[in-house]
Amino acid sequence: MNEIHAVSQNTFKVYEKYVVKRYNVKQFRWIGENLEEVLEPVPVIEAVTDKIIREYDPLQKAPELLTELLKVDFRNEESVINFVSTYGLPAGENLDKLINENTNAAIVPPSNQRSKAHKKLRLIRFNEVKRLGELSNLWYDIGKSDEKTLGQIIKGFEHSIYDDNRLGEAWETVENEDDNIKARKFLFLKLKERKLGSLDFDMVDGKFSLVIHFDDLFQVASWQLANFIANEDYFKKCQHCNNLFKPLHGHQKFCPPLLLAGRKTSTCQNTHNQRQKRKRKQQQKGEI
Fold this sequence. Notes:
The protein is an alpha+beta fold. The protein has one domain (7-234). 41% of the residues lie in helices and 22% in strands. The protein has helices spanning 58-61, 65-70, 77-87, 96-101, 127-144, 147-160, 165-174, 179-192, 217-230, 267-287; strands at residues 7-8, 11-15, 18-31, 34-47, 52-56, 115-116, 120-122, 198-204, 207-213, 236-237, 244-245. Strands 1-9-8 form a three-stranded mixed sheet. Helix 5 (127-144) packs parallel to helix 9 (217-230) and helix 6 packs across helix 8 (179-192). The chain is globular and about 55 Å long. The model has no long low-confidence stretch (mean pLDDT 86).
């Protein structure tokens, strides 16, 4: 199956500097037998300058976006800032009420903006990374095709049918199929829950083209994953950082270079080579 090519209808902006701030927000909590209003800090990552250092089409300029997003540890502020400094905030929220009135009312901006100038986002929204990671690892496990791994996926499918009637109906359609088909059906249903952007038909530079509108980078990453799966491509695990990556060729062992950051060589491969070099030097010293 050939990969579906589409042009992104909108671009994303990256600002020069991002920081994490904490805003006190009114929450109701049970204290003993009483429900009381308390102020709790909500961490928000935001751009603190209007200077834009990059504006890009993620489909054309950031093929590694999905796997780089999967590396983000949303509990680690430095990890989050490292990501957004390259790709920008993955989504945006209007947090005026949260900041000015101390009320937990975060409103996503209109989705018809062609240029995504996201400037504020609660760190909790990075929970989306966990969901994308679960789907990506599910596809990785299906690709391994070993009996034990497929069995674990199918157990997860079976346990889910009691909580979701839709999954129960789907299970009945594949109950007598082989394990690989069952696992694929489970992944299909989970991926169907994701929004992949809005596909349309347009003219670009005088030529007919498929165009797709993304509300945020989480949708871009979901689109990349769905396209990857539809093309029957499989992830590999980096021999340095052990994270998933999309191989450019069959012999690739390390994460690819970050194209959007202008890097031409793999950071993981360079780090691995330097460590191996130091190890050889230490061994040679020990032999003297």
